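Worked example 3 (structure in, sequence out).
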């Protein structure tokens, strides 16, 4: 899926962009505001989409002076599907957390980082995960390897994107900080903790 716009996996048109904006707020928006949030310089295409959605009752439209205000009709039969598409990123985070919580061997820490965490990238982007193995656990432990491999399989099944897994042992973190690879700055600036301590606490860096 497109990690910046996951909802386009099902609806790869301007309609999905407009619906995603409206699903994210209950505040009435003008067509120009919606076009700006979608990222369109011209709002004629957005206006056409809004008119069509209003005809189907998915979007509510009311006059406000010389403009129209638009909101998502939360009572429409189609709205749960719209909201589910808009919440795909949150759903991925929930699934990742649930699967990790079910592990037999508890990791010291897991974070999502990279393009999925930032909300950019595309269909070719990996779902990047930083996993810290407990200090007392060897890399080849079959229980550990099985659950990490299963997580990678699950990510691909859920998204169509490969899991880019960066794994270190807990006692390797000081070396990681000394070497200072790009992953360290990515984690501290954009990482989303799935389990374990906050990233800055894990890295021993000040807030």
């Amino acid at each position: 899926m497109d990690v910046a716009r996951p909802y386009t996996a099902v609806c790869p048109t301007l309609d999905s962009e407009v619906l995603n904006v409206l699903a994210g707020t209950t505040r009435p928006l003008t067509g120009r505001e919606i076009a700006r949030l979608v990222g369109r310089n011209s709002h004629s295409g957005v206006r056409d989409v809004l008119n069509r959605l209003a005809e189907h009752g998915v979007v509510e439209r009311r006059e406000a002076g010389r403009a129209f205000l638009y909101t998502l009709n939360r009572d429409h039969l189609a709205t749960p599907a719209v909201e589910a598409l808009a919440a795909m990123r949150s759903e991925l985070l929930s699934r990742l957390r649930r699967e990790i919580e079910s592990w037999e061997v508890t990791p010291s820490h897991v974070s999502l980082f990279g393009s999925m965490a930032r909300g950019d990238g595309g269909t070719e982007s990996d779902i990047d995960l930083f996993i810290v193995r407990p200090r007392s656990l060897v890399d080849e432990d079959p229980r550990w390897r099985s659950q990490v491999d299963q997580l990678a399989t699950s990510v691909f099944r859920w998204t169509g994107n490969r899991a880019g897994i960066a794994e270190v042992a807990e006692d390797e973190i000081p070396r990681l900080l000394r070497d200072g690879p790009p992953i360290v700055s990515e984690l501290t600036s954009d990482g989303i903790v799935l389990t374990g301590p906050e990233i800055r606490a894990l890295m021993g860096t000040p807030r």
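Notes: The first strand starts at residue 29 and ends at 30. The chain has two domains: 6-85, 88-203.
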